[in-house]
Amino acid sequence: MKKSKKIIGIALLLMSISYIGNAKTVNKTGKNQNVKKTDTTKRNAKELNSQEYAQVLSNFQKKAEKYLETGDKIKLVDDYINDIENAKVSEKALEDNKKADMEVFGMVEVAIFMKSMYSDGAEAKKLTDADYERIQKKFASTNKFKQLEGYVQIQPITQ
Fold first, then answer.
1. Within 13 Å, how many C-alpha atoms sit on residue 108's CB side?
2. Which UniProt keywords are present, listed alphabetically (predicted)?
3. What is the pTM of this model?
């Protein structure tokens, strides 16, 4: 008797787990609809060598130029963090690509700390002071910013 109770209990447990995994919601009209499961992206844990990191920097520069044309500074910072900050890079690759790294860093820093720069695009005109403050804090909290902050000295222009 105890064995059959355990088997029934295990079967119920498995059924409830599979039910949770295939979650459905009931919308306002009473119809069931499937809930999308979120996809988790697997980050590349491979350490980049000099050539690969140079390619990452080059690709980011191309994307950054497009973002600066449209004035989309939020995506610029988000992609900088995703592409450059989160990349696992060897020390040798950092040394070999220091000039390009500083160039990309300077481009992003100037774009977000000098509001008047790259502000002609439609997306830049939508940005508020709160948006600028938020992306500046996000950018300033990166390790790259802490390493390279002395590279570009930004002086506000007074008129």
1. 32
2. Signal
3. 0.60
